Amino acid sequence: MKIGLISDTHGFWDETIPKYFKDCDEIWHAGDVGEAGQIMENLNQIAPTLVVYGNIDTPEFQRSYPENLFIEREGVKIFMTHIGGRPSSYNPRVRKLIESEKPDVFICGHSHILRSYA
Fold this sequence. Notes:
By secondary structure, this protein is of the alpha/beta class. The chain has 4 helices and 8 strands, in the order βαβαβαββββαβ. It has a single domain, classed as Purple Acid Phosphatase, chain A, domain 2 (4-Layer Sandwich), CATH 3.60.21. It has helices spanning about 15-20, 35-45, 60-65, 90-100; strands at about 5, 25-30, 50, 70-75, 75-80, 85, 90, 105-110. A hairpin with a 2-residue loop joins strand 4 and strand 5 (about 75-80). The two termini are about 20 Å apart.
């Protein structure tokens, strides 16, 4: 399964997104969609899109989408939220969820910094 991962679009649609996500089975957006209607419509035209809300997303958007997403794909438990922190300093709310749910993969946005921890 190929996943396209994106976050913090803040209502901006980059015309190169379809090029990078065209072969994806799903797209996951880790929050701060902004101007959500068009962004979500565009992403869903490429592949089914899962999303969590971020701190800039409207109250209406926050009522329509979850703060936390727990899913399993190909036997891998995944936890996605917008504000998460990093391994040495997780957000306290997130730390509790990681400890209780024990995901194999944790995805968050907000920082605008791409990092991977093994």
